[in-house]
Each structure stands twice: as structure tokens, then as C-alpha cells.
Write a structure and sequence with these properties.
Number of helices of chain A: 13
Radius of gyration of chain B: 25 Å
Structural class of chain A: mainly alpha
Largest sheet of chain B: none
Order of helices and strands of chain B: HHHHHHHHHHHHHH
Distance between the termini of chain A: 34 Å
Structural class of chain B: mainly alpha
Strand content of chain A: under 5%
Oligomer: heterodimer
Shape of chain B: globular
């Protein structure tokens, strides 16, 4: 028990308190650390990169939440039946989840490069005449990163749905089939209501992770944050201010508090809805 | 009559699935397979293409004309990729060992031992889960630095060496042991340690393997935290090293492909070897969101 207690205090509780303390200082990676009141927070109001990061987070949420709430459910229904070889398919669909975000972002970076597979095939099929600048255009880069996140998340949410589908009553399905309901009708009338709670949980999880995105944008933009540093996320800004001579740990901590404030929203919503349902 | 037949089909379950439905299902499975696994295969193919082969071609070849392992040697001459792999392995080993021991002990104590402040402590463990790790990452860095561990592998490994979520998972597993089994052991004069070893451990093996698998994957794949802690390129872990290769040396996609495969293949091997524990856990409902 003692080691875990030490970890709880040293690496969890103390950093939480210290984040709040640091947010009101001008701590730098090299020295500094005087109390500066609300300076870090007023500085945010003029921070164009933070505004971009918030816009990008909203784009992330708006695209990821619907796609990742429904697509993995369809895949889970597909792998639920125990056909021969289904274990292979389940494992294979989960592969993007176990791979590091850096690895998959480098793979996608190569696929989407000017002379990569996607542009090559599209030109071959005469869909486009010039390569699309997936990695150098402000919005295309963001959309590429969002697609990567969706692709990497399919297997993860598939597993949660697979677990939930086990609890959907087989009798209800049979009864619906007896009454002449086709597969689509049964999916809408039996499956979806049966996994309603998981859907809610999953859409909240997706919202929170959309706000926490880092590796995909960082690696696809080569660590630069894209053209003009506009393809950035809140966590990328936190990382950026943690390093080197231009770093500012106080400001990074203040940004962390903002990140906490926005991620707690979806979680409170979940708690509130669950409470109403009970 | 129609109703009756439908009912028979329902009871027969999947074995009576029509051939048409089976073909449709397999076709859809193959489409999803191509989407999820295709990019990895393309990267593997690129990593095996020699310098003489045009990787940029607009008529892409999926199979290398003359497969070669030369790129794997070449990437090791550009960055110390093998020592990066060893660094990742060291971090992963510390994290796995720490969680297997630390989370098990703490989970057992929280589930089975009565002590003052136990409930409060449980609440504190749960509260940490609400906090995304990125929120405290800066002050965690400040803590690690004040311990003198900035720019060290130990500094990378230590904070994750006992995951709060893992403590709670192990607690859940220990709680599933019936109370009277435990009570009988107490009557027989078993102390806490004996109860843990003889009754506890054999019944939580499933959860323990899930904790081990995910600590390993988490530590091996992690990027943001080692990126913040490490500054000396000779100490990089694989993920940070690959990003360094990509942004500093750019250019040859064959080398980056070879590097990503060095990071990717071990984790796939580990997961493929242990996946049956994982999916058994899913079917037993152990993994709930």
C-alpha cells in the first residue's frame, strides 16, 4: 500500500496543486517563479495561437463525435457473430489502437505526402491533376489529423461496443425477427436502444479525447504546428511552452488549467445525465 | 407458416445464417480489414524497397520488386535506433514491473484490508481519474526535475510506474473474491500476506494480465511525456527518436518506414501473443468503458 500512496501524493496530488500554484507565477524552464497574479490569464486573451487551438478542438469534436459514435458500432455488429476466423478480424481491427500515435502518424504522413500513395492513386485515376497539399494546407492538415484520429479510434470503441452488445437481449432480437423486422429495422429498434448508455459514454469519451489531441497534429506537421503554426492544439501549446529558452512554465500551467476547465465540461454532463436516468 | 420458419431461424442462431449473408459479412470484414491494416502493409512494403526502386511511382507496386533489409541497417546509421529501442524497453520494463507489483499490493489493500482513512484514500484514487494526464504534465515535469531526474530514462518511467487506474482495476478484481472464502482463511489464521498469495493472486490473474499488457503498450507508445522529459538525443525513446528522424533528417521515406516498423512490429507481436487474454476479458465484461 505504501508505494502506491507515495505515487498518489508525489505524482498525482502534488502536481495537481502545483499546477494551480505555477499558473500564477512566471516560472521558466531555467529559473524564475515569482507571483504574477492573473498576468498569465490576461495574456491568453491576446494569444492568437490559443484561439486557433480552440477552433481546431471544436472542429475535432464536431467531426469525431458523430463518426466515432456510429462507425465502431457498425463494426462491432459485424464482428459480433462468431464466424470462422472472427478472432483474426477482431485482433486486426484493433491493431491501429495498439500502435503508437507517432508510428501511425508517420505512416499517414507518407500516405498523404505530395508524392505519396493517396495523391499518386488519385492522379492515376484522374480524380485530381495536381497533388493535394494534405500536409501543408492549414485546413487540409487539420482534416488529415482528424481522419487519422478517427481511423485510430475505430478499434478502441469497437471493443467497448462489443462488450455492450453482449448485454443486448438475444430474445428481443428473436422476437423482432419473428414479427418480420429486417436487419436494418432490428438494428435501429433493438441494437441501438440496447447500447444507448454505451453510446452516451463513448460520445463523452470522444469529446474529452478530442480536446486532448497532441501526437497526430504534432507529427503530421513535423512539430511545427503547420503553416503559420495555426494547426495546433491546446496540448501542443502546453508542450511548446515547457521547453527551452523561450519556454514559460507558468503560462503552460495556466493553459493546463484552461484545458482542465474545458475537459471537465463533458464529464459533468455525463454525471448529470446518469443521475437523471437513475 | 412464415412466422414459424422465422422463429426456427432465430433459435438456430448463427449456424443457420444463409450463405448470402455469410458472403456479405466476409466481404464487409475484408473492406474494414483493408482500411485498418492496409496502411501498415504499405509502410512495410516501403521499408523493404531498395534504393533502386522508385517508391514515389504513380503506379504503385504493393510488392517490392527486390525486397531488401538494407533500409533497416541504413536507418541505424542515421539515428541510434537500436539503442532507442533498448531505452523504450527499459522504460517499459520499469513501468510493467512497477504496476504489476505496486498496483496489485495497493488494490489488495483497498479491497480486502480495513484501515483508517481507507474510504478517503479510495476517493482520492478515483478523483485522479477525472484529471486528464496532460493537465498536470507541466508540474509533473517540475517534480521530476526537482528529483534530479530530468533528461533520464528513470524520470520517464517513474511517474507511470504505479498507475492509479491500474490500482482501481486490481481493487475491482480482488473485490470479486467471495467474502466467506476470505473469512475462512482468516479463521484458519492466515495473515494478510498469505491471503494475498494463496487466495488473492490466483483469482486475479485475468485482470493482472490486462494491467501488464496495457502498461507495456502505454509505456512503449508514449510520446508526449518522454518528449518533455528528454533533451539529449542519445537518451531518446523510440517514439521521440522517430519524430527526430522525421523532422531532422527528413527525405528518404524508406528509412522512416524501416524505423516505424522497428517500433511497430514488437508491439504487434506482444499484442498478438496475448490477445486471447484481452478478448476473454472483453467477453467476460471485464473491460467496461
Amino acid at each position: 500500500m505504501l508505494p502506491a500512496l507515495v505515487w498518489l501524493l508525489v505524482f498525482n496530488i502534488w502536481p495537481s496543486i502545483n499546477t494551480v500554484v505555477l499558473a500564477f507565477t512566471n516560472a521558466k524552464p531555467l529559473g524564475g517563479g515569482h507571483f504574477v497574479g492573473f498576468d498569465n490569464f490576461t495574456r491568453m486573451l491576446d494569444d492568437g495561437q490559443l484561439a486557433d487551438a480552440l477552433v481546431n478542438s471544436i472542429v475535432y469534436m464536431v467531426i469525431c463525435v458523430p463518426l466515432l459514435t456510429f462507425a465502431p458500432l457498425l463494426i462491432a455488429v459485424l464482428v459480433e457473430k462468431k464466424l470462422p476466423g472472427i478472432a483474426f478480424f477482431r485482433t486486426a481491427f484493433y491493431t491501429p489502437v495498439v500502435a503508437s500515435a507517432v508510428v501511425v502518424a508517420l505512416i499517414w504522413g507518407w500516405l498523404l505526402a505530395d508524392r505519396g500513395l493517396v495523391n499518386g492513386l488519385a492522379q492515376q485515376l484522374r480524380v485530381i491533376s495536381e497533388p493535394l497539399p494534405f500536409l501543408t494546407d492549414r485546413w487540409l492538415l487539420l482534416i488529415s489529423a482528424v481522419s487519422l484520429t478517427v481511423w485510430k479510434g475505430l478499434g478502441y470503441y469497437m471493443i467497448i461496443y462489443l462488450s455492450a452488445l453482449g448485454n443486448v437481449s438475444a430474445e428481443l432480437h428473436e422476437a423482432a425477427a419473428v414479427d418480420g423486422a429486417g436487419p436494418v429495422r432490428r438494428f435501429l429498434a433493438v441494437t441501438i436502444p440496447g447500447v444507448r448508455r454505451s453510446m452516451l459514454l463513448i460520445s463523452i469519451l470522444i469529446s474529452v479525447s478530442a480536446l486532448r489531441v497532441f501526437s497526430e497534429l504534432y507529427v503530421l506537421s513535423g512539430g511545427t504546428g503547420g503553416p503559420g503554426g495555426r494547426d495546433t492544439s491546446m496540448v501542443m501549446l502546453i508542450q511548446m511552452y515547457s521547453r527551452g529558452f523561450s519556454g514559460h512554465l507558468g503560462y503552460a500551467s495556466a493553459l493546463s488549467l484552461v484545458l482542465f476547465a474545458v475537459t471537465i465540461g463533458p464529464m459533468l454532463l455525463l454525471a448529470w445525465i446518469n443521475r437523471k436516468a437513475d | 407458416m412464415v412466422r414459424l420458419r422465422a422463429k426456427q431461424r432465430g433459435i438456430g442462431g448463427f449456424s443457420s445464417m444463409s450463405n448470402g449473408e455469410k458472403i456479405l459479412r466476409y466481404a464487409l470484414l475484408l473492406v474494414v480489414l483493408a482500411i485498418t491494416v492496409g496502411p501498415f502493409l504499405w509502410q512495410l512494403s516501403t521499408s523493404l524497397k531498395g534504393l533502386g526502386e522508385d517508391v514515389y511511382t504513380q503506379t504503385p507496386r504493393f510488392l517490392p520488386a527486390q525486397p531488401t533489409l538494407g533500409n533497416y541497417g541504413e536507418v541505424a546509421r542515421t539515428i541510434p535506433v537500436w539503442s532507442y529501442a533498448v531505452n523504450s524497453l527499459i522504460v517499459a520494463a520499469v513501468v510493467v514491473a512497477g504496476n504489476a507489483i505496486g498496483a496489485t499490493l495497493a488494490g489488495f489493500a483497498l479491497a480486502k484490508l480495513r484501515f483508517r482513512g481507507g474510504t478517503l484514500l479510495l476517493g482520492a484514487f478515483m478523483a485522479t481519474l477525472v484529471l486528464p494526464s496532460e493537465v498536470t504534465i507541466i508540474s509533473q515535469y517540475v517534480t521530476v526535475r526537482s528529483l534530479g531526474l530530468a533528461d533520464t530514462l528513470l524520470g520517464v518511467a517513474l511517474p507511470g510506474a504505479i498507475g492509479m487506474l491500474n490500482v482501481l482495476l486490481m481493487r475491482t478484481a480482488f473485490q470479486a473474491i467471495p467474502a466467506d472464502v476470505d473469512a475462512a482463511a482468516v479463521v484458519d489464521g492466515a495473515n494478510a500476506w498469505q491471503r494475498l498469495v494463496h487466495i488473492g493472486l490466483p483469482s486475479v490473474r485475468g485482470m493482472l494480465s490486462v494491467v501488464v499488457i496495457f502498461s507495456f503498450i502505454g509505456a512503449w507508445d508514449d510520446f508526449l511525456w518522454p518528449l518533455i522529459v528528454l533533451t539529449d538525443p542519445s537518451k531518446y525513446t523510440l517514439t521521440v527518436g522517430l519524430q527526430y528522424l522525421n523532422s531532422t533528417f527528413g527525405a528518404n521515406p524508406r528509412l522512416i518506414a524501416a524505423g516505424t516498423m522497428i517500433a511497430f512490429l514488437p508491439i504487434v507481436a506482444v499484442f498478438a501473443a496475448l490477445q486471447r487474454f484481452f478478448f476473454r476479458g472483453v467477453e467476460e465484461g471485464a473491460i467496461k468503458g
